[in-house]
Write a structure and sequence with these properties.
- This protein is α/β, with parallel strands linked by helices.
- Helix content is 34%, strand content 17%.
- The strands form 18 sheets. It has an eight-stranded parallel beta barrel, surrounded by four helices.
- A hairpin with an 8-residue loop joins β14 and β15.
- The longest helix has 46 residues.
- It starts with 6 loop residues before the first strand and ends with a helix.
- About 1% of the residues have low confidence.
């Protein structure tokens, strides 16, 4: 992947529907879809409507993406399909599993805006927009002079309200013709056309560097639109929406009430034309309830005609007597009689379902009396249903009255309302909900028209908005009662448009609006979606697709009033909205205004550097943050004139697009109404003397606005994308924008004036401020001041502002010249931290001051040098870097060449080492105060914590606190390595040299640069490690690579050697000088069984654990020499024909396990097969520590033997029989074991060839839990003795015998068999004979047949599962043989020839069903009476089966057996057939994905020893275990 490319990963999870989650991306990014753990291994197909290269976007056309698996087939951790994002817009993706759609979501790609004649990029965060009401611009030839005000004050985008012909109301948003330019713009000699406007837009872009956007209004049109008269089907009229008829009848009745009240006809009833008090309101309620509702009887539209229904019912009863019975049998008994609504909404037009009626009301005979009685019951039921409809209508009527009265209160009585005055036809009691283009008649006469289609089609519903409504539901469609309940806040000048679901539903409307969209997209750079939350989303989607065809990088803004971020995201996702308009006016105080700045953009100051390849994180919509929108009430009325400047400053410091509305800067003291304002804006005149209708920098805050806009654009363009908001006191907000490359900051301090300073108290005392760094300059300081001028008078022709306010502005001055600052002192906070203390003098309400702050010069230099040395890890650090001439010589070398000298054993020191390992070496892991110690002393310990902190930028974490508070952690990291000498020390010295600069930068930046240094070093070190491993690892997937680090984690050399010395005559053995004796000593890598419990001292090395893990951790990863040394070192400790369980350096070994020797032999076989020239190991010298069973330990070299002789001895001793008592038997070596337990026996059954051994008081296999509880009386009793022939040992023995037979046949192994004395004479048993014995008896004696009469079964009464393989044969407690455990799968892998494939497959299926857990295998069948899946070693109670962890191997899910289970499945599935094999691969990948997730999330970066049942965390388990990692590597190797 090229280093410059930003790549985001989206992990797919089964059934995850993300249509309410916003994913924002930029053009040029690569998006990779990867499989989450639930999907790995499964047949997933990803579909998207993002067009293929060169194709045209079609929202409904999806294509499949092809999968790339860069590392081949072993697992799906790196498998991805990708999109190269080059086109802006909103795109959908979904994925299916097989044929089932499983999940999906959207991605939104931002447009790139270009401006100027040279088409340079205008970043979204640099946008400074100003809204103009188009009708206030005057004739077109005067526009430039008026728009020039925006240019001169530094705006770079203009938003025009619609430029189309307006409706009768003159509202900017009520358009009479969407295709025609507003004729007001034309003058007597020149008609204004779209191409004129287009030419002006182009001129503004090229010459003024300004872009233009305008509104699109899709939801309604002016009631007087000419085309609507020709096409009434485009509105919701009473023909296409008959459900509105009752609401229309009510609306007309209310209109007649208006006329009568206006004419004074209701004054006698208490309602005069001028409504003034509650008494009048109560009288209105009374009139509606008593005069209007009873007259219009709305309930009749919802009721059935009783007589007509009864008559029809009676006719059916008498005609079709025979049919009735048949009907009744078919009818659904759960269907009750209900009113069926008349689709035409006629009075009493509703009906009931006669079939249900006939099935419900059945006469008991055919006589007339019975029929009459039945009809009466039916009549009674209809009357009940009608009564219910009446009650329902009554609820609607109650709501309607409440809404109506509420509207009257707001419009005529409320202090903040429009106070409309007396009721008249111009200002009716309530706004009409429907158009009525005919002569007025009486209510009754008018009602007749609703059933005449030629008239009813012109009664159309107006548009408006409904408080708290679901924006995804259309309130004019059937099923909504908004019009009847009068819940609509109605715009009486606009008709709501009815699109239907697709263009065919209303062809004219779709075509008309499509043309409108095309005109807009042709001439403008962007659109604002008006009334977006109420526009049918599928319509907006279609129109924006049309617009983007004409202008790919369309800037789309919208204001959503959903009040819910998830709902907002649905609109942003489906429409591809670029920026959501956010209003500073929603803030009730300065604290909230500051919070909005922080919310709408930027990262925290000192954020971490994120990698170019990283997960795609959910975003919040990009903001267009406006100090005021044209819908907002005037802030001068709400707050004060003094607040205009500080609030504009605060908004402008937000790291997003910002904007304002024309009039704000001029301090216009009222809202400029989109409906009633007809005056024109002022023109620009730079001269000192202004006349009416002109403005310049002396006006309002215009001069300040220019400075503020310039600053906003500079901060966006130069990458000041980190934000810090400080609430200094209740009125003062300080906003810092910080550039992470140069570490320059701009700090804007604003003193807001939400309360008028003339009438409210503001303290003269302003708190001092501390600004870290060196103040380079005051970018600007400005104060709102009053001046002598005649008081404000509203101009007749031009929109004018307050003349008696202006501002003082000074730009780019030094602190000493400031009039706002009293003095600035410098305090040194730390050795390299300047802090300037600012004391204010005139930071009056309505003032702002902006500082440009750099780091102190020494710190600035240190950062530059650090960045220079970090370029070797990422080009990101080039900007802001400085060449370094004086740095330590070691920094002149690239870190990769220093790291290249490290061996894998060195990497174990540099990256890992847990607490116990470090303590043994005289150190310990770093402990973070108020948190916890790190898991490792090496870099992985730190990286695990930082990996959690970095993506979230969690700078408040105790880890970051510790870094900011002092150098302890920094020094620990470098000094720990320097003390280790050799190549490790060089890494330490390099880090120390880097940290010299790190310590010179301000403390708040230390976490981010500490992280950058360590990330660079760590990733380089991992590459060095992988480079020394096998090609399987080097070319492997991320999962394989991360697992292979388990080999580095587990294999190390401590201060004291764990392994016995190897033969001095052996080549390539590593040596070192002993620090204390100064003598040469061997230093071979040893393998820890698990961290943290089995990592140091005598508990580090175990025979069984070492050889179960060795193939995966050392052979598969290519660590052949170290593997050889471990095999030979253990071979040197062979005694009694056994390999020790606990190694104890050989001198303190315990020979109490029967299986370690067989695992050792299996490893030698694996070594010979995997390693090039592997058979050479057979001739390597083994130094025998115990030449005879009773020898004292001999030094290395005393007696050497080739390995093949040692192998033969182990085989020979087993055939002869092994029987001894452990040395020092008793509590000194085992405080729980009973006396008989110290007697060790093993041998081979001469008839079957099976290895056997053990007794009921010891446990010689891996399931080696010895009881420890006196209270539960299980002390000294093994939970799982597994004596007799344990299945996996029989399998391992078979594997070895078969291998030795093969080798002796090729004359590589000099022995043909073993000899025993029998009946006084020597007898040879050949390997061939031994091999045939096991083969001949295994399935007969181990398979639990499905045939109950099987003659081979000694204990049929003990069987509780058939079709499985026994866990052992010949146990002293026979029922133990029959327990289902996962051990037979080990035999299947090492000796598959013992198993019939069909039987093996059946047994594996049972194991899968019963034993397979999320990460491991249950160690016992959950149907077994002693099964318990939760291991608690601390619990001591009376329960024999669980006390002191007695159930260690009686249920908890161990990880290592899962490797053998999966390998067995893989092997046998191939033999069963290709279809089964393919399914098995899917299943294995799916299981392994859970291990991948665990490995990635684990702070130990390992896989645990075991989990409790169903994969739950077990606190007593090792957090990372050698054999758990090893077996997973093996199955990946097999795949």
């Amino acid at each position: 992947m090229p280093s410059g490319k930003e790549t985001r990963l989206l992990h797919l999870s089964e059934m995850e529907k993300l249509d309410k989650t916003l994913f924002r991306l930029e053009q040029g990014f690569e998006l990779q879809f990867r499989l989450g753990p639930t999907l790995q291994g499964k047949p997933v197909t990803v579909y998207t409507n993002y067009p293929a290269s060169g194709a045209v976007f079609d929202r409904h056309k999806f294509r499949t993406l092809s999968w790339h698996n860069p590392t081949g087939k072993e697992d799906d951790s790196d498998k991805y399909c990708k999109l190269d994002l080059q086109i802006s817009g909103s795109y959908q993706y979904y994925f299916s599993l097989g044929n089932e759609k499983s999940g999906g979501g959207y991605i939104v790609v931002d447009p790139i805006l270009h401006v100027g004649a040279d088409n340079h990029v205008l970043p979204l965060d640099c946008v400074t927009l100003q809204t103009f009401l188009a009708k206030c611009l005057g004739p077109f030839h005067e526009w430039e002079d008026r728009l020039k005000v925006a240019k001169e004050t530094g705006y770079n985008m203009i938003h025009f309200t619609p430029l189309q012909k307006l409706g009768l109301s003159r509202s900017c948003y009520s358009l009479a013709d969407q295709l025609e330019v507003n004729p007001d713009f034309s003058s007597h000699n020149k008609k204004c056309t779209w191409s004129d406007i287009g030419a002006l837009v182009e001129k503004l872009k090229n010459e003024w560097n300004m872009l233009c956007i305008t509104d699109v209004v899709y939801n309604h049109t002016a009631a007087n639109s000419e085309w609507l008269r020709m096409h009434p089907e485009c509105g919701y009229n009473l023909v296409n929406s008959p459900h509105l008829k009752p609401a229309w009848v009510l609306d007309r009745a209310l209109w007649h009430l208006t006329c009568m009240v206006a004419d004074g006809k209701y004054t006698a009833k208490g309602v005069p034309p001028l409504i003034e008090n509650d008494h009048h309101l109560n009288c209105i309620r009374k009139i509606i309830w008593e005069d209007i509702y009873p007259k219009i009887k709305l309930w009749e539209f919802f009721q059935a005609d009783v007589n007509k229904a009864v008559q029809q019912f009676k006719t059916l009863l008498t005609q079709g007597k025979g049919r009735v019975c048949k009907m009744s049998t078919k009818s659904d008994p759960n269907q009750h009689l209900q009113i069926v609504q008349d689709p035409d909404y006629r009075r009493f037009g509703c009906t009931v379902d006669m079939n249900i009626a006939l099935a419900t009301f059945i006469p008991h005979s055919n006589g007339p009396a019975a029929i009459e009685e039945c009809c009466n019951w039916f009549r009674k039921r209809i009357e009940e249903l009608n009564a219910e409809q009446y009650r329902q209508t009554n609820h609607h009527q109650e709501q309607a009255v409440n809404c109506l009265v509420g509207t009257v209160v707001y419009e005529r009585l409320a202090g903040d309302g429009p106070k409309l005055g007396p009721i008249s036809r111009k200002y009716p009691l309530v706004t009409r909900y429907f158009t009525y283009p005919f002569k007025e008649l009486t209510v009754e006469e008018e009602e007749t028209m609703i059933h005449q289609p030629d008239k009813a089609c012109y009664f159309m519903a107006h548009n408006g908005w409904v408080m708290g409504d679901d924006p995804l539901r259309n309130f004019a469609e059937p099923g909504s009662n908004v019009y009847l309940r009068r819940e609509l806040i109605c715009w009486g000048d606009s008709v709501k448009l009815r699109y239907g679901n697709k263009p065919e539903d209303c062809p004219y409307l779709w075509a008309h609006m499509k043309k409108y969209t095309e005109i807009t997209a042709k001439y403008f750079h962007g659109v604002r979606l008006d009334n977006c939350h109420s526009t049918p989303i599928h319509v907006a989607e279609y129109m924006l697709d049309t617009a983007r065809k004409l202008r790919a990088d369309l800037y789309v803004v919208a204001e959503l009033f959903t009040g819910n971020e998830e709902l907002d995201n649905i609109f942003v996702n489906r429409l591809g909205i670029t920026s959501l308009i956010r209003e500073a006016m929603t803030a009730y105080n300065s604290h909230e205004e500051g919070r909005l700045v922080y919310r709408f953009g930027g990262e925290p100051v000192g954020s971490f550097v994120q990698p170019r390849l990283r997960p795609l994180m959910p975003a919040i919509a990009h903001a267009l943050f406006m100090d005021i929108t044209h819908d907002n009430e005037c802030p001068i009325q709400h707050r004060s004139a003094y607040d205009a400047l500080p609030s504009a400053m605060i908004v402008s410091m937000a790291c997003c697009a910002t904007g304002s509305t024309k009039g704000y800067d001029e301090l216009v003291p009222h809202q400029i109404s989109v409906v009633s304002e007809e005056r024109f804006y002022s023109k620009w005149n730079p001269a000192a003397h202004l006349t009416s209708g002109e403005v310049n920098f002396q006006t309002g805050i215009l001069a300040g606005r220019l400075a503020i806009n310039r600053l906003h654009q500079e901060l966006g363009a130069k990458g000041f994308n980190q934000v810090y908001v400080d609430q200094v006191d209740e009125d003062i907000v300080a906003v810092t924008r910080h550039c992470p490359n140069t570490h320059q900051s701009v700090v804007a301090v604003s003193r807001t004036a939400f309360r008028d300073p003339k009438t409210s108290f503001y303290s003269k005392e302003v708190p001092e401020m501390c600004i870290p760094g060196k103040i380079e300059e005051v970018v600007l300081e400005a104060r709102t001041i009053e001046r002598n001028a005649s008081p404000y008078k509203k101009d007749e022709r031009f929109i004018n502002g307050l003349p008696n306010f202006t501002m003082e502005l000074r730009e780019h001055i030094q602190i000493k010249d400031s009039k706002i600052i009293k003095q600035a002192g410098t305090a040194i906070k730390g050795p390299n931290e300047f802090v300037q203390e600012i004391e204010f003098e005139k930071l009056t309400p309505g003032s702002v001051i902006v500082f440009r702050v750099s780091l102190d010069p020494k710190a600035q230099e240190a950062v530059g040098v650090l960045r220079n040395h970090l370029i070797q890890f990422s080009p990101h650090f080039k900007s802001g870097s400085l060449p370094d001439d004086h740095s330590a010589p070691i920094l002149k070398t690239l870190f990769s060449s220093i790291a290249a000298k490290l061996t894998l054993a060195d990497l174990n020191q540099v990256l890992y080492r847990c607490e116990a390992e470090e303590q043994e070496d005289g150190g310990g892991c770093y402990n973070i105060p108020n948190w916890s110690p790190l898991k490792y002393a090496g870099l992985q310990g730190l990286m695990s914590v930082m990996a959690d902190i970095r993506p979230k930028n969690d700078l408040g974490h105790p880890f970051c606190d510790n870094l900011r508070s002092g150098d302890w952690m920094i020094d620990y990291v470098s000094n720990r390595l320097i003390s280790r000498a050799g190549a490790c020390a060089e890494v330490g010295k390099w880090l120390k040299a880097m940290f010299v600069y790190l310590k010179r930068i301000p403390r708040y930046l230390i976490p981010c640069y500490f992280d950058a240094i360590l990330v660079g070093a760590y990733t380089t070190l991992l590459d060095v490690g992988w480079h020394q491993m096998s090609s399987f690892v080097q070319n492997g997937s991320t999962f394989v690579k991360h697992l292979s680090l388990g080999s580095v984690q587990m294999c190390g050399i401590g201060k004291y050697s764990c392994l016995p010395d190897l033969s001095p005559s052996l080549h390539d053995v590593p040596y070192r000088l002993n620090e204390i004796t100064n003598e040469k000593e061997q230093c071979c890598v040893s393998l820890a069984a698990g961290l943290p419990h089995f990592s140091s001292g005598i508990f580090r090395s175990w025979g069984r654990d070492t050889f179960i893990a060795l193939r995966g951790l050392m052979l598969v990863t290519g660590r052949y020499l170290e593997a050889r040394n471990i095999i030979l070192a253990f071979g040197g400790t062979l005694r009694h024909g056994l390999i020790p369980n606990l190694l104890g350096q050989g001198t303190h070994a315990r020979y109490n396990c029967r299986d370690a020797v067989w695992w050792w032999l299996q490893c030698i076989q694996d070594y010979c097969k995997i390693v090039p020239n592997g058979l050479d190991i057979l001739r390597c010298p083994v130094s025998r520590m115990y030449p005879r069973d009773d020898s004292s330990p001999q030094p290395a070299g005393t007696m050497d033997q080739p390995l093949y002789e040692v192998i033969q001895e182990a085989m020979q001793r087993h055939m002869e029989g092994i029987n001894f008592r452990e040395r020092n038997a008793g509590p000194q070596i085992d405080q729980n074991m009973r006396d008989e337990g110290f007697n060790v026996t093993a041998g081979v059954d001469h008839e079957t060839g099976f290895v056997f051994g053990g007794n009921r008081f010891n446990c010689g296999t891996w399931m080696d839990k010895m009881g420890e509880s006196d209270r539960a009386r299980n002390r000294g009793i093994p939970a799982t003795p597994r004596d007799g022939s344990a299945v996996e040992i029989v399998g391992l023995c078979k594997s070895t015998v078969r291998w030795l037979l093969d080798l002796s046949g090729k004359n590589v192994f000099p022995f043909r068999g073993v000899t025993v004395k029998r009946h006084g004479k020597e007898e040879t048993i050949t390997y061939d004979e031994w091999n045939r014995k096991i083969q001949g008896h295994f399935e007969r004696l181990f398979f639990v047949s499905e045939n109950p009469a099987d003659p081979n079964e000694k204990h049929p009464n003990l069987i509780h599962k058939r079709g499985i393989y026994k866990d052992s044969y010949g146990a002293s407690s026979p029922w133990c043989d029959y327990q289902l455990r996962p051990n037979f799968t080990i035999a299947m892998v090492v000796a598959p020839e013992l198993f019939t494939p069909e039987r093996a497959w059946k047994a594996l299926q049972i194991a899968e069903e019963k034993l397979l857990g999320p990460l491991g295998m249950k160690t016992l069948d959950p149907d077994d009476m002693v099964y318990c899946g939760v291991y608690d070693n601390a619990l001591d109670n009376d329960n024999y089966n669980v006390a002191r962890g007695f159930n260690y191997h009686q249920g908890p899910e161990w990880l290592w057996p899962i490797g053998y289970f999966l390998r067995a499945k893989l092997y046998f599935s191939k033999l069963i057939g290709p279809e089964i094999y393919a399914k098995t691969v899917v299943m294995i990948k799916n299981v392994l994905s859970r291990h991948y997730v665990h490995l990635e999330r684990s702070s130990w970066k390992g896989l645990p020893e075991l989990t409790n049942e169903n994969g739950q965390y077990c606190p007593f388990s090792c957090e990372t275990q050698a054999w758990s990692i090893g077996v997973i590597l093996e199955i990946l190797y097999d795949l």
